[in-house]
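Input sequence (542 aa), recorded before submission:
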Amino acid sequence: MKRSFPSWVLHLSTPLALAVASSGCGAAPASGGRADDSPGEAPSSGEAPAPSDEVPAVPGGPARSSPDGGGEEASPEPPGAPSEREDGVMLQGFFWDVPQRTAEGTWWQHLSAQVPALAAAGVTALWIPPPYKGGAGGYDVGYGVYDRYDLGEFAQKGSVATRYGTLAQLQELVRVAHGRGVRVYADIVMNHMMGADERESFSAGGRSFSVFSRFVYRGRGGRYSSFTFDRQHFNGCDQGGWQQWSPWDFQPGYGGDAWDNLLGCELRLRDPAVRRELVAWGQWITRTLELDGYRIDAVKHMETSFVREWLDAVRGPRFAVSEAWFGSLANLEAYARELGDRTHFFDVPLHYTFHAMSNGNGAWDMRGLRAAGFSQARPALSVPFVDNHDTVVDGGLRSPVTNLKSLAYAYILTRAGVYPALFYPDYFDRALRPDLDRLLRIRRERAGGAGAEHRESDADVYVYSRAGDGRRSGFVLLLNDGGPAVRRVRTPFPGRALVEVGGHDQARITTDAEGFASLPVGARTWAVWAPEGGSAGDRRRR
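Predicted structure, token format:
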């Protein structure tokens, strides 16, 4: 990633590349773990599960369980889940290095201008980047946190505005979004801090330290909070190498795939004063921006008891989704239990399945999509995604879905019981946008009833169906990574005329008394066959 920085950021807590790095580009853990935060067990592109009878994708709530070591029962349903999940689609409204100026002005102004079209297309929530001042000021993408109370309001780090704009522009974005029925989720970064104002020299454990670890916020002058951070609030800092003067909050776990010291100055999240301040800040930013929810960064690098406490004290009825970057499904499920099912999770294992499909580029066994990821194991807690800001740039999490991306989006946007996420560059890609708009319409108008994976799936074509409900017709989905194909499928629609509602075929096919029909799908694309007459579009077509 090519970036330039003014000379005054040279004392930042890590090399400059980390001033704008996300949790996916951390330094090496003390032991165990991976220096690049790469997953413990990414799905391989090898053998797929053998064919079997239909596997239902039941959209019910999570089972109650006791989190490991926590002794607390799980919530039967996270707040905000049903309405978000039934028809909802969130959009990640940014990517690495979004432009500081756009045709509309700042990035916040640009997003405000996009909201009406997004809402009309079926996007129901907007995930915005970290909105507070980073250590690199107006250059920082927000993950190099400096002052969480500066939302583009104070002259600090060489700029009043953040990379994305001013507080007033951000509040206007929220107002516009709410006016169109679009929720707003803010990216919450609480693991670390960067860009300290002053150096501290001290001794601890028989060693001498001289580190930039004091944050005094002179530009803000104590407004909103008089709390300042210094070395007693951190366990260590990475400044050209880790300098540690206090034990990490926890030792590496989950087979070394979760560890404390990620990057910057690592907050001591076992310190009651730090915990109180972060809870107070969470409540403040929620009120100030009228937030509807949160995307919590790097949760597997934070003390779990603190994450539970923060969610209980701040979230209320709002939505929360956490980035716990576990390639291992078993680890992600175990971590969800440890947090007491208080939050949704991005489906990282499913992303790696899509990455394997992309790398196979037609040679991969499409049965690998069956029963895949957290979206199958815990659909009520799952936020499936195809790519995000970390997966498409150089770094430890680089794993782009470059081939067959439309098939991956068809999978997540038609899935029962989950809350899918779009990535900004994908939605605004001219080649991909028409398919995504059609899939959003299908989700809104057709994606009703229980979902089922079909035994007719084979190495080239994956088959999934929704049975329909009283409001939406249901459909049969075919995902094909090979040449043009026809598959005989037992549909949930006996004796019904089916039409392809994705714009890929003009045929009209009638199922037999048992629901069987031979359904075509084009090369390297998807098809959605649904009962005729189930939407206004079908009636116009007749």
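Checked by second reader. The CA atoms of residues 28 and 260 lie 10 Å apart.
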